[in-house]
Amino acid sequence: MARGKFITLEGGEGAGKSTQAKKLAAYLKGQGIKTVLTREVGGTETAEAIRKLWLSQDEGCWDKLAELFLIFAARREHLTKVIWPALERGTWVVCDRFMDSTRAYQAKAGPIEELYRMTAGKFAPDLTLLLDTPEDISMERVRARGGWQDRYDLKEAKFHRALRKTYRALAKKYPRRIKIVDARNDADHVAGDVQAIVGKLFRLKT
Length: 206
Ligand code: TMP
Prior knowledge:
Elements: E1 6-11, H1 17-30, E2 35-39, H2 45-55, H3 64-88, E3 92-96, H4 99-105, H5 112-120, E4 127-132, H6 135-145, H7 157-173, E5 178-182, H8 187-201
Residues 13, 40-41, 71, 96-97, 101-102, 105-106, 150, 152 line the site of thymidine-5'-phosphate.
């Protein structure tokens, strides 16, 4: 049995990751591929509990390193209980955020690469789709979404701009793994672009 593929979706706030993750999982299932759709921080009961604990607090409430331990504890739970077993079974995994989010959001919080190696060794996504949006669109979409907003949603333009810059720098650093998708267009258009990249890379039927 061939190992499954691990595909992650990344991007700033309001980039449409969750919608695209759902659409991608549906597309893969339509291709007859067993697929699990999951997310970080979260993906298991324990990791979702950590997410709640972490995001419901105001920024600055957590010590930076303690915050990293929470994220990596959740990631380890997710990897060992969901992601790795699925890949072993030949199931593909579509994950809404993964380590690149830590690189983008917690870049200066501590030894993130060292913690990653302890948590996951040399494991990395087979493909990362970076949904790229200028900050004005990110902010507009977050506003339009309404409802409960977490502490990152509430940040202003400068934060979104810096986040985008970091993500784009990551795409430059890992050009084989990270593909940039223009996420300014409507969801169906973006989904078409995502499918084209995935279909070509993994040689799927169109
Ligand atoms: P979401 O936007 O996908 O719902 O994710 C919730 C927040 O978690 C989002 O603002 C980004 C943040 N996050 C980090 O700061 N570091 C991480 O490693 C991950 C996975 C998410």
